[in-house]
Amino acid sequence: MAVLSIIAPQRNSFALSSGHFVDELGRDVYIPSEPKRIVSLAPNITELLFALGLGDRIVGVTNFCNYPKEALSKPKVGMLLNPDIEKILSLKPDLVVWLSEGDNKPAFEKLEKTGINLYIIAPKDISSLVKTIKRLGDICRKEKEADVLVKSIEERLKNIAAKVDKLGKPRTLFLLDINTPVSASVGSFPDEMIRIAGGLNVIKTTYSKYPRIGWEDIARSSPEIIIVARHTEETEKSFRMFKREAAVTVTPASQKGRVHLVDGDIVSRMSPRTMDGVEEFARLIHPEAFR
Length: 291
Known about the structure:
Number of strands: 12
Helix content: 25-40%
Largest sheet: 5 strands, mixed
Number of helices: 12
Radius of gyration: 20 Å
Strand content: 15-25%
Oligomer: single chain
Shape: globular
Distance between the termini: 23 Å
């Protein structure tokens, strides 16, 4: 199966020489010894660091870092797009891990000018997530833990493939938002999740990975399964109304009771919990394979 060809490159492709590492924007970052005080500037980075056994070295996280529960008690340093630089400096980190995502270049430039040791990650799919785990394992001297984590991901992918590979490909619609419907098209991370889980993404738009779609698009795409990401408690109220929309009730998904709400964090963050999201997709798309 294609998704299993995710063997990461050898570690020496990440390290230039002793203490020098290449981050995911190609920058040379000098980290001479294992970091002792780490600031995470994105929820998925926090999850990755905890998964590598680095929770006790994290001295700062963003306002949105909510997993694992231990992250909630860490000092807050603002948000990815608008970090509190003075707060970060006060924590005296020897490493800040940054996520290259969205329009955050101005904040990055401000941070870089402070001279803080800044390492950037940019996972976009499961293959690059595996590379990111290896890289973080290297720079934090947690190579064994990274290997265990990567092996776990590969085994979970194999298990899913064994269950769904020979089954049909139900037409699947994923919605990141439902108030103004936002879906996920070809090349997006949810599109990859649907494919691995044995479904067929009904959204094939090319102008955006996360296009806004109309109610008529939902009806016309005739999905057999609709999966909606839950971000807040308000989403649950909106979801009840969504299921009653005329454009939804005419779909095979609605008529067969296959309109589902899932934890938005596990389907939108590139972290070890990504595999929880893929498995959840597989159970919803192919419940017959998990009985």
